[in-house]
Amino acid sequence: MTKNIKVFVPYCLFFLLSFSQASAQRRGATRTKATNTTNVKIDSAKWRVENYIVNRDSAFANPYYALQKLVGGNKRFQQSRSIYPRQDPALIERLSKGQSPFATIIGCSDSRVSSEILFDQGFGDLFIARTAGQVMAEATYATIEYAYLELGTKLVVVLGHSSCGAVSAAIKRPENPPGHIVTLINAIKPAALEIKNMPGDSLDNAVRRNVINQVKLLRGLESVLSRAYSNGDLLIVGAVYNLSSGKMEVLKETLEDLPKTRYNTADITGKY
Length: 272
Ligand SMILES: [Zn+2]
Known about the structure:
Order of helices and strands: HHHHHHEHEHEHHHHEE
Oligomer: single chain
Shape: globular
Distance between the termini: 59 Å
Bound molecules: zinc ion
Strand content: 5-15%
């Protein structure tokens, strides 16, 4: 019996090692490297700095840290150094008992703008609403309010992107668009008109203006969001994601003249 176990255990280990190596190869070289690095060096301060790691609890408690965490994750993604955090079965099981996402993302439905991937975040991190052109309606407002009031999420990011088809349609304003598409066009039209005489690329300008307008709308939305924003408890900012470079740019126009806040904001937003 003992002899059988002695033979059996090394055999199992060999099998498991072979299996995990084969799985790792299937996942691809970049991911394997990142996963191994994560396992080995997750506690190293140097590794954390090099990989723009922001503590998750700090990000949940302070929206400025939350923004820094998104910017850092996007840097890893852009540099092909994603660490694919928080995707293991044990965490998924734990999350079934509750969630505390550290940011709400209002993004475009475009298949090339997946927030968890471009911010290199995992399960339970981001609360997301997506429509074409990130056009919002009553249900979207309620979604953001729910995240803030019930889940305690203190950062809202309105995320536009380059070459957005919905914004492009709002610039061109086709006659008699089919179905409900006119809803999107009407919502983005003010931004398209505002940038008409601006120098530069009209689509890029309209994408940015649309995000800025949407941020303004949320900041003034009675009663939950306007109060939470003006008393400095909820941070609402805008960003644009570049489809070609993979870079997310936080729009500086939405970081100016922010209300007084109780959070520590020193050396946070511009760090990465
Ligand atoms: Zn889009």
